[in-house]
Amino acid sequence: MRVLAIHERSVPISRYQDPVLPSGGLTTSIVAIETDATRDGRTVVGYGFASIGRFAQGGLIRERFAPRLLAADPRDYTDGDGNLDPSRAWTVMMRGEKPGGHGERCVAVGTLDMALWDAAAKAGGLPLHRFLAESLGGRARPMPAVPVYAGGGYPYPQDDVARLGDEMRRLADLGYSRAKIKIGSAPLAQDVKRIDAAQRALPHGGALAVDAMNAYALDEALEAAAALSPLGLWWLEDVCDPLAFDELSAVAAAYPRPIAAGEALFSVAEAKLLDQHGGLRRDRDILLFDPAHCYGLPGYLRIVEALEASGWPRAAFWPHGGHLFTLHVAAALGLGGAEVNPLCFRPFGGLSDGAAPMGGRAAPPESAGIGFETRAELAALFRSLG
Amino acid sequence: MRVLAIHERSVPISRYQDPVLPSGGLTTSIVAIETDATRDGRTVVGYGFASIGRFAQGGLIRERFAPRLLAADPRDYTDGDGNLDPSRAWTVMMRGEKPGGHGERCVAVGTLDMALWDAAAKAGGLPLHRFLAESLGGRARPMPAVPVYAGGGYPYPQDDVARLGDEMRRLADLGYSRAKIKIGSAPLAQDVKRIDAAQRALPHGGALAVDAMNAYALDEALEAAAALSPLGLWWLEDVCDPLAFDELSAVAAAYPRPIAAGEALFSVAEAKLLDQHGGLRRDRDILLFDPAHCYGLPGYLRIVEALEASGWPRAAFWPHGGHLFTLHVAAALGLGGAEVNPLCFRPFGGLSDGAAPMGGRAAPPESAGIGFETRAELAALFRSLG
């Protein structure tokens, strides 16, 4: 099996369902990896995309990582039977990369890695979660359906609290009893109002997490921790700079309920530092590392296994991302759960068209590969890559 | 003063003077920032380049950072008199960037930042080190000439020890009594032979540092520390993964002579972690942060000032890079010294054509800007950007 061509394009994305609202000029990269394999009479093409919430990586993909794959001997990225082996392809992409500097390139590699897994699972005729369970062997812990929550709740420039309540009711109607909203950009008193409105809008028995998007300085983080402690939040996320582990540790000492961290850490080296110096508690805290941002699944597996070796349960991992790829990964590895973005980052976030969580869980699609084709708008976007 | 156009191109670079030797496919980006200012009848154009030792950043420059500068209102990147203010331009470039993920983009921003300082100093009719001393005011500590050492000593695929000795003698002939060579890719016994050959080739009273290029696992690092302790090395650099601070700390506890670190850390957040957890000793150890890799001079200043506030002397800073920009920065800030790459990373490394260190020190050029024009081959390369 051979990689014949890699197509790539940058596309805008938005935090909001309403395309009129400005969203910081966010972009992402879409890629299609064309192979010489066929399955059921069709050429196997793998699809992937880059960051949800940061920026496209077209330059690094075109100039550094795709050329390494295209120039490689196919024996370097296939297994003994000639099938595409994404773990070996990952080693090809990382040739000559230096230690340190875990930003941007980790997303570029993760983008291509996602498409490589899609292609490999399609060629094998399996949905990705089953393909992973087979190919990872004892490293997998397959489960049929994944606990999920809905991500969203970005501040609205107008009628913020009312629109946030509407959004949460919409998510509840879609079957989500657990959700996460953003805080940290408004004054704390306003964020407490937002939290109250969101909690009221979710169904009885639901849970609300909040994400401060790394906005707080230490004093603000401690003030927020004190104000939010009594509110019964599911978790408090990204309270300070992602590498300010002493600050995170101080917040953890002051905030008894769960804290979530790791969305903006991209390597096993940073994950170990978080574990060693972040003051997190293995009995309750949440790890958000995003497989697509952490050099793809091979990089993510290193993080999961390094932290597992130091005593973290897999149930602590709830990967950021909110799309079908993370759902497959969570199902195959037996993680705590996964984010789903039903309304934002369209057309990338969310489950298959028409699918909804049942009893707080969602199953990944059973079509071959990741199943991006089960989302009509996303499938059309990928097909436009040619 | 207004930025009119930004030109950019990727070019190959080599660790070796001999262009035949393979050098890992390294590349760098060159940029020219064209302004509407004139000085002495000529348009002011600022020049910069990216990584020395990693890869080009053309995609991030073209797709993310140059467009922000070009789209900005000039009042956002000029001072009250309408002169280009690189610190304000830096804020424009960093608009919307998220915390965390300090790789690649830090070099892309640093590349443009270098060219912005070149343009600003040229427009002011001053060599950069004097322009910085004026514009930074009390944050500067100007000194007329900078202690320097020659970087080089990469392993040769054939006749390694003999060619290394020749290279060190060549550096000594060029006026360098201090040099640094690479270790870590050969077995330790071979590296000890290389060190011995290099030390013998340097003049009496010289000093040799060694750079392990982050190659060692902990047990290898401790073994190397034990073997190298008696050799009287100036410093031992980059002994393990740049973020493995517990490993670095173990090496520091076992190695009494100076240790150097920080070349592969790119942000003030990582610098603080190195300081807090790396076990380094403020009375002897060396900090290698590279201004062009750490989001440019504004990012580098944050690192210098954060570590100074925690007790580090400026004399501990010996920035990586080996070119004229770092020489100006070291002269303006009163740092310990600077690397110079007289033979490698041509045409970027080294002093002005014909210049040589005197008594272990080198002065930055006195032409306006960084003075890349004092290097004929480099000036021609920049001019080719059009």
What would you say this structure looks like, in words?
2 copies of one chain form a homodimer. By secondary structure, chain A is α/β, with parallel strands linked by helices. The first copy, chain A, folds into 2 domains: 3-125, Enolase-like, domain 1, CATH 3.30.390.10; 138-383, Alpha-Beta Barrel (TIM Barrel). Chain A has 12 helices and 11 strands. The first copy, chain A, has helices at 58-71, 86-93, 105-124, 128-136, 160-173, 188-201, 218-228, 245-254, 268-277, 296-309, 324-333, 376-383; strands at residues 3-12, 27-39, 42-49, 146-151, 178-182, 207-211, 236-237, 259-261, 286-287, 338-340, 361-362. In chain A, the strands form 2 sheets. In chain A, strands 4, 5, 6, 7, 8, 9, 10 and 11 form an 8-stranded mixed beta sheet that branches. The first copy, chain A, has a 3-stranded antiparallel beta sheet with strand order 1-2-3. In chain A, strand 4, helix 5 and strand 5 form a beta-alpha-beta unit. In chain A, helix 1 (58-71) packs across helix 3 (105-124), helix 2 runs antiparallel to helix 3 (105-124) and helix 9 (268-277) packs parallel to helix 10. The radius of gyration of chain A is 20 Å and the shape is globular.
